[in-house]
Each structure stands twice: as structure tokens, then as C-alpha cells.
Amino acid sequence: MMKPWKGIKRLLPLLAMSLLLSACGREDLSVLRPQGTVAQGQFDLIILSISIMVVVMLVVFAIAAYVWIRFRRKPGQQEVPKQVEGNFKLEVVWTAIPLVLVLILGVFTVQKIFAYGEDYWNDKNAVRVQVTAHLFWWEFSYPDYGITTAQDMIIPTGKKIALELKTADVLHSFWVPSLAGKTDTNTDGTVNKAWIEAEQEGVYLGKCAELCGQSHAFMEFKVKSVSEESFNAWVESMKAPAVLPEDPAVAEVFRTQCLSCHAVGDQGVPVGPNLTGVGSRETVASILLNAEGSGNAVDTRPVQENMEAWLKDPQKWKPGNRMPDPKEDLGLTDAEIEAIAKYLADYKLSYE
Amino acid sequence: MTTPHAQQVSDTLPHEPEKATLEGRNKVLGFWLFLGGEAVLFGTLFATFLALRDQVADGPSAAELFSLPITAAATFILLVSSLTSVFAIQAMHRGNRKSLATWLGVTVVLGLAFLLLEIYEFYEYIVHDDYGMTTSAFSSAFYTLVGFHGAHVLFGILWISILIGQLMKKGLTAVTAPKIYVSAMYWHFIDVVWVFIFTVVYLLGKVV
Amino acid sequence: MAHAHSVKRYKGFMDWITTVDHKKIAVLYLLAGGFFFGIGGIEALLIRVQLAKPMNDFVTAQQFNELITMHGTTMIFLGVMPVIFALMNAVIPLQIGARDVAFPFLNSLGFWTFLFGGLLLNLSWVMGGAPDAGWTAYTPLSSSQFSATHGVDFYTIGLQIAGLGTLIGGINFLATIITMRAPGMSFMRMPMFTWTTFVTSAMILFAFPAITVGLVLLTFDRILGANFFNVELGGNPVLWQHIFWIFGHPEVYILILPAFGVISEVVSTFSRKRLFGYSSMVFATILIAFLGFMVWAHHMFTTGMGPIANALFSIATMLIAVPTGIKIFNWLFTMWGGQITFTTANLFAAGFIPTFVMGGVTGVMLASAPADYQYHDTYFVVAHFHYVIVGGLVLGLFAGLHYWWPKMFGRVLSERLGKWEFWTFIIGFHMTFFVQHFLGLIGMQRRVFTYLPNQGFDLMNLISTIGAFLMGVGVLIFLANVILSFREKKGVAGDVWGDGRTLEWAIPSPPPEYNFKQIPLVRGIDAFWKEKMAGHQEMTPAEPVGPIHMPSPTILPFLMSVGLFIAGLGFMFTNDDFGNSFLNFMFNKYIVVAIGLGLTFLCMLLRSLHDDHGWHIEEEELKDGGVQA
Q1: Partners of A279 in the β-ladder
Q2: What is the pLDDT of residue B64?
Q3: Its pTM surpasses 0.90
Q4: Which of the four CATH numbers 1.20.120.80, 1.10.3720.10, 3.40.50.620, 2.40.10.220 does domain B17-55+68-207 have?
Q5: Quick one: residue B30, left, alpha or beta (phi over 0 = left, psi -120 to 50 = alpha)?
Q6: Is C145 on the interface with B (CB under 8 A)?
Q7: Which of C175, C201, C202, C166 has its CA nearest to residue C101?
Q8: Is 70 exceeded by the pLDDT of residue C619?
Q9: Which one in A74, A322, A349, C9 has a CA-CA gap of 20 to 30 Å to C534?
Q10: Torsion of CA C172, C174, C175, C179, to 10 degrees
Q11: Closest partner residue to B138 among C175, C179, C234, by Cβ?
Q12: Domains held by chain A: number
């Protein structure tokens, strides 16, 4: 039998590795594992500043440790230490060196500020997306294609995505850590521009980063980067006219109760999230993860179950959200809810 | 201690009685500091006003709203009141209590006249033009800035009136002198603020 | 009392609410600050319990938002500010060789307005819900449309009243330090804590009026229907951010500078050396204050101010690292060549240096705008500001409290318990906040009431929660230490640490009511140390023994604050329908406001009309007390 400490000895590097990896976070979520041009540049700046700062910290810690050990008062020590007024040379040294360090960081900072402040809205090669934040969901409009979607922002890989961001109510902040830092979504009059670019295909997690009310924590979204062909296919399928539920009774309920706030294809009212192709999204209401979604690994359920769970009690999942309760407020029966959930879950777009 | 305390000097009042005691000197210094804070307060109000002055929504703009003759008259009155408060302090330095009280009285009357003009102006906007705090961002900023100043004038009038009363009853002493001196500082300060208001709010509103 | 002026002297409770003695006001500040610090701490623990595991439902989303808002607001405005003021009140007049502050009446007024403002704010918990828009109260979230309870009204009006108290305190200390210094104490001979208090007070004077205006605008928007932040009618929510941070950034330097002062005193005393590079320390303090007013927009890099503004504010912010670095190295070289004793006070000061450096370097990292687009509003920022405020200021306050406790109360805190305090608190602190840097970097945004599992957040959040409780244990040990210290006999040596350098150590512990029997003559920096080195046991007096003039106690500041409290409460319910015609009349017609303001102004009138000549302590009484000065 192996001695216990041997086991620990073998486990230790593993443990350290897993801790280190977990400290770097998920590939689709972490600032430390950048997947896009902007995030990569920001990561480089973070590494540069951390490196400088670690050096500074080590110098301070080393001097501190030295004086604490070396200059402790010894028992019986009575003579008065020399009262030093100061030292001009030293003062110059510890003023000048930090100044130089700050300037080095400053140069790279300013360079990147202007790089990421670049406006690609009028660049012909960029894909334009208008982002509108709502309590507590995200709307993405593609003005050049005349389509609007919600929660999942589909983008072509390797192209610059020019964003125009604003809010419909309180302030929010648009953040996809693995692709780019934040941009606030302000009210009309102070609309912001930004850009992102994904280097590889994949699904990236986005979050609202400005306190916006009760479900601030759940105001997530996904950025799904696909090939250019898939993107074009997606645009085409988004434009296709909506097919309402087959059962006329369900269709009637859907039209009168749901489409008074939601839109599908060419029908409905765009107050709440657009539901076109909602069945092929990564999530229901951004936090109920769909098993069908390509970006979700664990804790998932089939989209139909998620849709049913959501429709039966929206406030349970996202407190403070503005959707009327289908049962309480709109008077839908369980059977109707289940039928609509099935319809929505089956409402898929094929583009991959 | 070398510094005599308030009650010890009332018989022989020096040239600058407001600085005769440590308390008096502290009061003047403290009041200067307070005015520093007040300057930041009005500075922030001015910044707010400047940020929002074009945001008139559906309401009238500054150029349509303001009537310069009234505000010009108010400006003149307040400037003169500043002058009369200078005369008051000069009288105090001469030790002339009667003249001091008279000039303070004139200052209060002029302050009242200014305040009445401002109340009339607000009354016209609110009642005749139906133009209130809630009309637009511009109106909110306007009423808040000018109203804050008006409240300062009102406070100054009440304060100086009370000081006149104290002056009559207790005489000019090392206790009353610093109070009168700082009230004059206060009065000059709100006068200066008004000059800025007249320029930034009214004149600029008419021009740009 | 031999003198003609007889003056009422109160006992017990009445003594406390009428006192104008800076030493008693210091105790009041400490009690009130401790009380609010406790509330803020409990709020913090509730937050950490909720975040201990993913998808926790210990509190609701709404309760969580109220907790974070009140935790931040309480800690900044009502927790640490008063403890800073407690130390200032207890120490500054003693350090500059004065018998009191410049305006004893205002000193008392400042305390009571602060207290009643703080009480008003905390009343929100039991009166319909606490504010829920974050301590920054960003509009439109804080507008009446999106925050319909009275919570934010309690925030605006409570802070308005409390802020008035702070402003008054700031003016008072500025005037005190300018005019009340003992003969010979030039500005460049002032102790470092006095210097930082002076600079902090100047910052208060120029920063607080900005938030006063901001709070007025938000109050008017919410109660009078004004449109400062209402977009439909031309308002601009970003304006609030500017006004808030023009105040808010200087505010964090207002908090940290006094801690710098405390550390300078403690490090120097317990190294038995004078402060290294005194004049560059003074210069650095002033420079930090000056730059502190130029960098507010670094809180708004993601707001969309444009590249030029972002670049300027980035560089300005980074520059603050330079004077801060000067301070750090000067402390280290104060210890260099000294004889360091690790008393509890010095342990906290020693803990301060590396901890604060860690908070400082993340500050420089945050200053780099493009990187800040990633850090902003994440747990990285939460970690950063807790490192500077808790790891900087709170450690500094603990150092200061242990250092001056004997001077304030005549009793020494237990060193044994003190060491337990220090180690539990600082280990708990680093456990709580170090991991939060990484939480932010791997994608956890701040102010979230919970988080989904499988994001890699779980373990670090749990560690953080455990650390928070460890900090709580540290605070409880401190509390026990305080209580136990009062079982000891009062009265320790004046120079209780044996190596006191500044004037407060030249007088008894606790000091007599008049502080100095004779105002001392100051002959250099570290005045008391200098006399001791010259072989003297006490300071050379600058005046003969004589009767000492004292200000009279007064209830007016207390009543004025009660008046403001009533008026504030009345104003926020202006638009409410109570379903009761009497209450509707009282509130909707501003009657309650008028009563409250009337009381305040009446007190001001009484103060103006009634000449307060104070009273005297006679020579015989000084001798009878057996006081050695």
C-alpha cells in the first residue's frame, strides 16, 4: 500500500493545475482566455500592467520583510536610533522610477484607447448591429438586413462587427468578456459605438455589467460566431415568413395573447423579445440552458421543457421581469401553455 | 493668554472690531472657508444649468422667455446693495453705530426689492406662461439655480435684519462686529453669484 | 466657581447631548461610527451568505439590491467617516497644542446632523424598503419610475443631512489647524496626522458641495417632478454620473489620507525614529489631494466619453501612483535603521503597507482605460476598492484606535487580544478579497444577487464567504477587547508607549477637560520627543498659569439636527396619500417640513441672540486636580 503522503505528493501538482486552470476560467467567459481581437489586445495590456505591478510589489515586499526582520527592537536595546531627516537621492529615485513605469504603461494605454475607440459603423466590410438593452433582455437589430432578434447575437467569424448600443429603460452595460470589454448602453442622446470581432467560431457568454434592477444577475446573452455562409443562411431564414401553430385554437391564443407583445417573422408587435426561431437559441430567457444549444455542456434541459418552465412562472426565473404571467395575468390554461411551448420549441431555424 | 476674549474688550473697540478677538478672527476665517464651499455649490449648479440649457423640450427657450429689463433692474439693485453694505462696514470701522445700522437697513430694503422682482418674475412664468419646474430639463435647471440664489438672498435679508436688531439692543461690540462683518461677506458673495447668473442665464440666454 | 459667569453643567445623558468638548464628541463619533459599522458589517455578511453558493435563495433579488446599496452607503458615509472624525476630534487639538477646536458649537452640530442623517437613512429598512439603486444611485434606475419605493428618498435626504455634518466638520478642522496651533508650531512642524487631516478637510470642503447639489437634483426629480435626469424632457442621466464622481473620487482620498496620517504616526513612534522624508510626505499628500479632483471620470471609462477624455483621465489617474509610491517608500525607510516594536497598533500599520500596495497596484491597472473596459463593474473592482478601503483605511483605523485608545480613555487595550484581532482580521480579509480579483477576471460582474453554476465561480465565492466571517470574528474580538478594557482602572501614563513624539503624549491620559494647563511652546518637529531628547520631562510652557476659558455646553445643535430630521422625513412623503385627511394635510402641504425647518431656524436665531460668554476654570481648580502638563 502506498503511504498517504505519497498520494498527496502525486495529487498536489494535479490540484495546483486544476486550481490554476479554474483561476483562468471558462474559455467562452473569461477575460484571461481572449477569443477576439479586442479582448486579445486588452488581455495584452492587462498582462503588461500586471507584470509591472508584480515587480513593484516584490520590491516593496522585499524591503518591508527586510526591515521588519533586521530592525526589530532587541530586548534591552535602549540607545536612541539615529534620527534621519530624509535622503534627497532616494526620494528622486522612488519618484522617477514609478514615473517611468507609469509612462510605459501610459503609452500602450493611449494607443489602445484610440484603437478600440475606432468607429467602424460606416465601414462597408463591417456587419452593423444595433444593440438595445431592456429590463432584462437584449435586442439585436441588423439594419442592413432588416432583421431583429433577441438574446442570441449571431455574427460571422473573422469580420468586424460594428455596434451601436443604447437602452430602452435604465442603464445597462454590454459585456462579452472573451471578445471585448464593456460598453454602457445609455439613453437616447448618448448612444455609444463599439466593435467586436471573433477569431473562431463558437458561442460566447455575454452579461449585463451595470446594476439595472432585480434580475441584473440574469441579464445574460450569447454571441454566436458562425461561418459566413451560415450567417447568410441564418439571415435568410430569419426573413422567412412565420408559420403559426397548426392547431387553430392554439394559433388564436398565440396571436391574441403572445403576439400583442412579441413578434415572429413578419407578424406581431416588437415590444418584448423577438421570437423568430426561438427554438434554436442557446437558452430560454437567457438562463434556462437548452440541451440543444452548442455552447452549453451541463445543467441543461430540452428546449421544450425550459420553455414550459418559463411560461408557467416567469417571475420565478427572473424576478422583476416585465412579462405578464401567462397563467395569472393572461388566463392561459396549462394545456395551452404546453402547446405554445411545444410550438416555440419546434420553431427552429436551420442555418448550420 | 495674549488674546483677549469677547467680553473683555467691549469698552475699547479697536479700528477693526471684527478681528479684535480670537473668536472673531476664527469666525471670519471660517466664513471664508464656508464661502469656498458655497462657490463649489453654485459652480455645480452652473455646470448643471449649462449642460441642460438647450434642453427645452416643448417649452419656450431662454430667448423667448426672459425679459431683460426686469432682470437688469434687479441686477442694478443688488449691485447697489453691495455698495451700501460696504458703506455699512466703513461705518463700523469708524465706530459709528447709527450710520452702520442705517446702511444695513438700506441694504435690507434693496435686498427685499430684488427679491420682490424675482418673485414677480417667477410668478409671471408660472402663472401666465404655465412654465414650471416640470416643463423641461432647462426649466428645472433654471428654477433650481435661480431659486437657490433667491433663497440665499432671503436668508441674507432675515439674517441682516436680526443683526440690526442686535446692534440696536447690544451696541457695537466685539461680539456683534464679527457677525456684521461676515454677513457683509455673505452679501457680497450672493451679489457676485448674481452677476454670474445674470451673465450666464439671462444675457447668454438672450444671445445664443 | 469663583468667576462671575455661572454656567449650567449637565450630568449623564444630558451631558452627552449638550457637550461641546472635542474629546467627548470624539467618543460620540466613535460610538455612532461603531454602530453604523456594525450594521454595514452585518449587511456585508448577509451579502456573502447569499453568494456562498450558486443560485442561492437566502435573500431575494430585491433584498439583495437593498443590502448592497445600504452596505456601500453605510460603510462609506456612516461607518468609516465618523471613526475618522472620532480620531481627528480626539487627537488634532492635542497634537497642535490647543484647548479646543475653533468652533466647538459647530463641532457638536456636525456630529448631530451626521447622526440624524444616518438614522434617517437607516429608517428606510422599516419604512417601506431601503434604497436599491446601488450606493452610486445611477439614474434612471434611481428615478421614481424605476425605484418606486421611498428607498432612494431616504438615500438622498439622509445623505444630504449627514453630508452637511461632514462639511461642517471639515470647515471646523481647517479653521482649527490654521488658527489654533500652539506658538512655534509652524505648518512644517505639524505632525503628519494633522497634515493629512488638514488636507482631507480641504477636500471635504470642495467635494461635498458637489454631492449636495447632486442629491438636490435627484430629490427634485423624484419629489417635485423636475427633469434633470428625465430623458423624455431633455434630462441627461450621464450628468448624474459626472456630479456623483466629481464628489465620489475625492471622497475616496478623503477616506484614505487620514489613514496615511495614522500610519505615519504609528510607524514613526514604534520605530523610535522621526518620519523619513517629512517634507516630501507633506508634498505627496497635497499632490494626491490635488490630483484626486482631476480623475473622477475614470469611473466612467465605459460610459462613452470618447477616446480623448479616456486617454487624459487614464494618464492623470496613473500619475497618482507616483506620490502614493513616495509615501510607501518613506514609511519603509522610516523603519529602516529603527528599533521596531510590534505592538498591536504597529502590527496593523505593518499589515497596512503590503495590503495597501496591493490595492494601489490594482488601481494603476484600472487606470488603463482599455483594460478597464474588462475590469469595470466586475468583482475585480470590488476587490480593488476593498483592498484600499478595508486593507488601507480600516487597517489604518484599527492602528489608530489601538494607538490612541489609552489617550482617549486612559486605558490600554489588551495586546494579547489585539494580536488575535489582527491575525483573524487580516487573514480573513485576504481570503475574502484576494480571490475576488480572479472572480472578476473570469467573468463575474458585480452587484449580482446570484450566479448560475458551472461558471467556475463557486469555489472562490465560498472561500470569500468564509473569509468574510473570519473578518467578522476579528471585529468581535476587538469589541471584546474594548469592553474588557473598561474593566481596568482608568488612568495610564501620559506617554503610555514611552516613545511618544507629538504633543498629545505630553499630557495625561485621558487629558483634562482643558487639555493643556499651559499652552506649550513648540521648538521643532516631533515637539515632545525633542524636549525628551533635551532631557526635559515636559514641554516648556508658552504662557503663565491662568484661568482657562471654556465654551458652554448647549442643546441647540442637537435640536437643530432633530429639526432637519423632521423636515427631511416630511419632505419625502409630500406626494403620498395616507388615506387620512389630517396626515395628508400635514405632509402634502409641507406643514411637517415647515415645523422641522422652523425648529432648526429657531435654534439658529437663539444661538445668534444669546451671547455665549463661556465659563472659566480657575487656577486653583487646575492645581487641585493635581494635573501635570
Answers
A1: none
A2: 87
A3: yes
A4: 1.20.120.80
A5: alpha
A6: no
A7: C175
A8: yes
A9: A74
A10: 140
A11: C234
A12: 3
